[in-house]
Amino acid sequence: VGNIPVGVLIRKFNLSTMATMGGVIYLSATTVLVLLLGSSIWYGYLQPVDSDGNPVVIGEFPYRLFQIVLLACAICWGAAFSCLSITRLLFVQHRVPKTFRARLMSLVGGAQRWAMVLGPFLAGFVAQHFGIFVAFGLHLPLCALNSYCLYRSEMFRDISDEIKAADLHQSSMASHRKSQNASGD
Q: Which of 31, 11, 1 has the alpha carbon at shortest distance from 139?
């Protein structure tokens, strides 16, 4: 569902902006989740107590709030994935010869799927041995570096110019055909 608005936004902005936007959205959602999980009340390290030392029942509201924030983060991750995947496909379409395009798309897709399988295991290992904040602490700067590199990429900007030129050419051809049909009637 997110690919349709991303396609429209790519026509309006350029690929580097959309790829960077995807990275920023992903980074923001992950940061919110880290801060939420890092809160000692949410994560369970600290249970609020009254003056007698008895645990205070927080109630169902914080749990529901946590669920709402987690749902919002999941939606943001989906939007970010749409931005990154569509820009990747457009980049490959415009820069790779047709003879290698299918092979490259399958290799990149396969690598992405392997990363989705192995990434949680690696993050779990790091979180178990070094703590959850180290796992997220490694994740956030890498995501920020990726977004910065995509933003600074000249190749993405060149492809955006090619796409805009092709759109302009198609619209001028369509208006030319329409004017010829109108004068021929």
A: 31
